[in-house]
Amino acid sequence: MPWRTATVPNERARFVLEAQETFLSFSELCRRYGISRRTGYKWLSRFDGNLDNLADRSRRPSGCSHATAPEVVERVLQLRRSRGWGARKLRRLLRDELEHVPSVDTIHRILQRHDLVDRPRKPRRRRGDPLMRTTPSHEPNAVWTADFKGEFRTVDGQLCYPLTVQDGFSRFLLDCKGFPNLQTAPVIRRFDYLFRTFGMPDVIRTDNGHPFCSPVGLGGLSQLSVHWIKLGIRPERIDRGKPQQNGRHERMHRTLKARTTRPAGQNLRCQQRRFNRFRQIFNHERPHEALDLETPASCYRSSDRSRPAIAKTPQYPDHFEVRKVAQDKTIRWKNRKVCVSQLLRYEYIGLEEIAEEVWSVFYGPVQLGWLDERDFRIMDTLGAQRYR
Predict the structure, then answer these.
(1) Which of 25, 49, 354, 386 is the most buried (most CB within 10 A)?
(2) Are 128 and 241 in contact (CB under 8 A)?
(3) Whole-number pLDDT of residue 132
(4) DSSP assignment of 100-159, as one string?
(5) Which residues of the chain have pLDDT under 70?
(6) Are 353 and 359 a contacting pair, CB within 8 Å?
(7) What does the pLDDT look like over 193-241, one tens digit per residue?
(8) What pLDDT is recorded for position 388?
């Protein structure tokens, strides 16, 4: 015969049932069960003919004097659903609306209780890239970053290629324009519009995709980058397969995709209205943690460099050898023809001697490759070779 298992609820049930039938005094019964008379009376009063009443009850208070007001909780949830921001940004926004603003931790717990935040991910160990050679963004318009967000289709089936341009220092989103294709001429016109509106930056950083980089152009030059150089802007490209070198821009793309393309617009015109609305919120309403929770618009100012009316020929130092690229895309070097690039026809390039019979080839501030006098060919900086 197995031993009888004694549990607290079972002992309470035996006590109240025995108290109604025993001939023992109540004090003696309590002594046998090892409880005080006060505890015994408590369980008798709670029993009331139902054994379920003898279960343990929560000690949690029924109310809290310093709990967040229901209307504040509702406002937090409303902002989260409409903006999709985290606790720090929501608190920055609530500072302008409420007299008593909950803390960041309180807002985060509200979002957790309503399943509006993702589970925390295991942090990855981040290592700096020792070969990263990007220009630092120390002030507005020192560096602009540009990229084409991955294409997608609107509801009517048309392709949309969003061009995004951002100031690297203030995170100010200068433009977000949807194009139906990747033709270069409309992109050049759009950048000229930005230069007339906001002035010109010193550097524009992009990836190695079209139309920023050409796989067949010497040094990766494209029609767009040649246009920038003639305006006095230095194009800068990140390393291939290294999107982290343009991490600020890629992070903005993640928010852009979540807020404007899920789902996509009915057509390009409707999609552009979404882009315009996103840009307004991103620049003027959404606080940025890297800016001490200020908005990008409050940290950005237009450039003092205005777009010149006529693009100028790049200038070179006095010790450079300057050659003009002929119509057949070659230059004359020691009575030999050296092939350069179709894009640089009628343009002037500069050559700087770096070793015996080896010259660095430049177009403006951009190094295109190296000219070797032993075989009169240019070794491209991207690894391709151009033969005479």
Answers:
(1) 386
(2) no
(3) 43
(4) SPPPHHHHHHHHHHTT-SPPPPPPPPP---TT--PPP--STTSEEEEEEPPPEE-TTS-E
(5) 1-5, 121-133, 382-388
(6) yes
(7) 999 999 999 999 999 999 999 887 888 899 999 999 999 999 999 988 8
(8) 33
Contact 120, 108 (CB under 8 A): no
In this structure, is the dihedral angle defined by the CA atoms of residues 105, 109, 115 and 118, taken in order, positive or negative? positive
End-to-end CA distance of the chain: 103
- Token readout for 364 is 């403006």
Q: Vertex 257, ends 251 and 275: CA angle to 5°?
A: 105
Q: For position 385, what pLDDT does the model report?
A: 40
Contact at 8 Å (CB) between 29 and 23? no
User: Percent of the chain having pLDDT more than 90?
Assistant: 55
Predicted confidence at residue 2, as pLDDT, reads 60
Nearest-angstrom CA–CA distance, 188 and 235: 14
Q: Side chain identity at 151, as an amino acid letter?
A: E
Q: Which amino acid is at 106?
A: T
- Computed over every residue of the chain, the mean pLDDT equals 88
Within 13 Å of residue 18, how many CA atoms lie on the same side as its CB? 16
Count of residues making up the chain: 388
How far apart (Å, rounded) are the C-alpha atoms in residues 237 and 223?
15
Cis peptide before 263 (omega within 30 of 0): yes
| Three-point CA angle 281, 287, 289, nearest 5° | 140
What global pTM score does this model have? 0.77
- Ordered by start, the domain boundaries in the chain are 8-54, 70-113, 143-299, 321-386
DSSP β-ladder status, 358-363 and 366-372 = antiparallel
What's the pLDDT score for residue 121? 67
Which runs of consecutive H residues, i.e. helices, occur in the chain?
8-21, 26-33, 37-47, 70-83, 87-94, 104-113, 184-198, 223-231, 247-260, 268-284, 296-299
pLDDT 10s digits, 320-360: 999 999 999 999 998 899 999 888 999 999 999 998 889 99
CB 280 within 8 A of CB 256: no
Locus of tokens 């589970």: 119
Residue 70: is the preceding peptide bond cis (ω within 30°)?
A: no
Q: Write down the CATH number for the domain with range 143-299.
A: 3.30.420.10
Closest CA relative to residue 192, chosen from 306, 269, 314, 277: 306
CA gap 84, 81 in Å, rounded:
6
